[in-house]
Amino acid sequence: MPVMETENSNTRRAEEFKQLANEAFKGHKYSQAIDLYTQAIKLNSENAVYWANRAFAHTKLEEYGSAIQDATRAIETDPKYSKGYYRRGAAYLAMGKFKDALKDFQQVKKLCPNDPDATKKLKECEKAVMKLKFEEAISVPESQRCSVADSIDYHTVEVEPQYTGARIEGDVVTLDFVKKMLDDFKNQKNLHKRYAYQVVLQTRDMLRALPSLVDIVVPEGKHFTVCGDVHGQFYDLLNIFELNGLPSEDNPYLFNGDFVDRGSFSLEVILTLFAFKCMCPSAIYLARGNHESKSMNKIYGFEGEVRSKLSETFVELFAEVFCCLPLAHVINGKVFVVHGGLFSVDGVKLSDIRAIDRFCEPPEEGLMCELLWSDPQPQPGRGPSKRGVGLSFGADITKRFLQENNLDLVVRSHEVKDEGYEIEHDGKLITVFSAPNYCDQMGNKGAFIRFEAPDMKPNIVTFSAVPHPDVKPMAYANNFLRMFS
User: Fold this and answer.
1) What is the mean pLDDT of residues 435-446?
2) With 0-12 CB in 10 A as exposed, 13-18 as middle and 19+ as buried, what is 248?
3) Which of 1, 96, 107, 187 has an alpha carbon within 20 to 30 A of 364's alpha carbon?
4) Which domains does the chain carry?
5) Which residues form the signal peptide (predicted)?
């Protein structure tokens, strides 16, 4: 076949793949869309639209590193294609890199000077960067900061006579209090600040006393449940308790990070988990996720929600308490549970994780960062992170880490999975995700894992989303970010 005909045929087929990809994207099937855009790119890599569209699909899956790479290719292919800059700017924005985002939106404005939408978004971006500069200017260095928790005495907070919600009598958080609080939350009533302070401060004291790696012992004949990301989906959290029972000494849980952000009932989720921790410390274990951090909470809704439902002081208090959350757990010496994943270097021992000084905001590199941000990959070895933070690691890395630490299994969360879970790396790694129909649009199931001692075989239970009040995800998120999502 002549070269010209082959080129025309490839161009036609590439367009067909693009159309199929667009349909998949509209149906929220973002992984499928990425595969189809990839087919189009293989046939015609000189079309900037394919790269920009694939970047957008990566953004929807929170793969911001991959989105930036694809958008950059779109720009290199056609420097005058405004959507390339737009997609890259949106991905930078989602990572909290406002200054990088600003440069791209300035370019969009230059290419589309008469577009009112481009003008509006540039102004919002400029405002966000100015705010960031101001916050940096007035911020106190970490070493000089006073603890906000130490300045609060919840006993002195007055409870108004007209308050009819859940109350803690004295200093002990009881099951009756927790049940009443859950009923109030179901009916969209807030917990009084006095009791919210009490729950959060008591949880802080417990978390501070724990090591960075917590060992959990499940006695023979007993069971233990591990849940993944809940992301502010309070009504789905209640459904987990309906299906699997409330946390108790005989029915213990580990929630593996990302309790907050995106879902608009994050405060209800975190106060519920903290209240159970206060009621019975051995009923519930909590691990830090990448969203238990100031930078994420500022962008993805938790900070705005706390400010709206409680106060500015609580914003600071939660940030402080999140820094006390342990980074990983080991169940019965065999199951390693962590929010993100494994490491950029070999030879990391459990003792190295125990030795991490975790009482800080997550750094952008190193063991703590990788525990919170990394993801598995199908190919062996290590690769760059599709998120732009942490890394991707293969089955050989998982196998070596387990062997060197005499472990059997890695359980992690951090990624939406269609079935609520995925078993990878020759059965040695399970991802569990407990936020069904994530952000009210992904259509995924949720899952949790029950382990029975002594054999500790994972029994995976999946479940579907339940209805919730008409409050959209990201309702309290950074307005600026919502404009681009």
Assistant:
1) 96
2) middle
3) 107
4) 1-138 (1.25.40.10), 148-483 (3.60.21.10)
5) none
Q: What pLDDT does 259 receive?
A: 98
What's the mean pLDDT when you consider all of the chain? 94
Pairing label, strands 409-412, 429-432: parallel
Alpha-carbon distance of 267 to 282, in angstroms, equals: 22
Q: What percent of the chain has pLDDT over 70?
A: 96
Please confirm, yes or no, whether 155 is among the known catalytic residues.
Answer: no
In this structure, the chain runs to a length of: 485
Angle in degrees, CA 158, 161, 165, rounded to 5: 90
d(CA 72, CA 84): 7
409 has which bridge partners? 335
Using alpha carbons, list the distances in angstroms from residue 204 to 82, 118, 217, 372: 47, 44, 22, 20
Rounded Cα gap, residues 379 and 395, in angstroms: 7
Q: How confident is the model over 121-142, as pLDDT tens digits? A: 888 888 878 887 877 777 767 6
9-10-12-13 Cα dihedral, nearest 10 degrees: 110
If one counts every other C-beta atom within 10 angstroms of the C-beta of residue 235, the result is 17
DSSP state of 146: P
- For the chain, the 3-state helix, strand and coil shares in percent, each to the nearest 5, are 50, 10, 40
222-256 pLDDT, tens digit per residue, is 999 999 999 999 999 999 999 999 999 999 999 99
Element (H, E) at 266: helix 266-279
The residue annotated as part of the active site, out of 231, 291, 329, 468, is 291
Tokens 């359980």 identify what position? 411
